[in-house]
Structure formats: C-alpha cells, structure tokens
Amino acid sequence: MPMENMVHMFGGTKKKSTLVDESVIFFPREDDGSPRQVILDNFCQSEVSKFRSCMSAHDNDENKCLETKGILDRCAADAFSKVNTDPKWVF
Fold first, then answer.
1. Which tens digit of pLDDT belongs to each residue from 22-35?
2. Which of 74, 13, 49 shows the shortest CA–CA distance to 4?
3. Closest CA to 46 of 82, 88, 76, 15
4. Is residue 27 part of a domain?
5. What's the pTM value of the predicted model, to 2 decimals?
6. How far is CA 60 from the centre of its chain?
7. Were 72 and a residue from 9, 26, 47, 49 both cysteine, which residue would form a disulfide, CB within 3.0 to 4.6 Å?
8. Does some domain include residue 31?
9. Which Pfam families does UniProt cross-reference here (predicted)?
C-alpha cells in the first residue's frame, strides 16, 4: 500500500475529494440538430415519425407507445452500430 494511503487512513491529513461538483449536465439528445437525431433521420425516418405521432397522440406517455418504441429501438441499435463501425461514415 502506498504511503499516501496510509496517511489518509490513519487521520494524518484530510482526505480531499475531486468529486465536488454534484450537478448533472444534460446533453441535447433530442434537439433537431443533434448528432443522434441526424443519424436517426438518415436510417430510421419512418420509425421516428411513427413513434413521435404516437407520443403526441398520448400526451407524451411512453408507456402507451411501447410497441413503436421497441421498433424504433431496434432500428436505432442497427443504425448506431453501422455508424460506429463504418470508418467512412463521418458526422
């Protein structure tokens, strides 16, 4: 065990944490210009439109659109797999 850990374990110095920022940063995943949406528009345009129409018809309740969400999830998994493995595909 390194000596620094021994000092901290037995109260020789105060242990300082680098994890002082507890805020959560949200990235724009659903914005129209986000890379995720561009990929979905290229590969899964009909699935996205069916899911969005279902969501708008049911007041954005995903529990009522599980069928269309499942179809979109399968299409999205294939799309992101293609994008991540194809070296020619550049965003």
1. 666 555 566 777 88
2. 13
3. 76
4. yes
5. 0.63
6. 19
7. 47
8. yes
9. CX9C
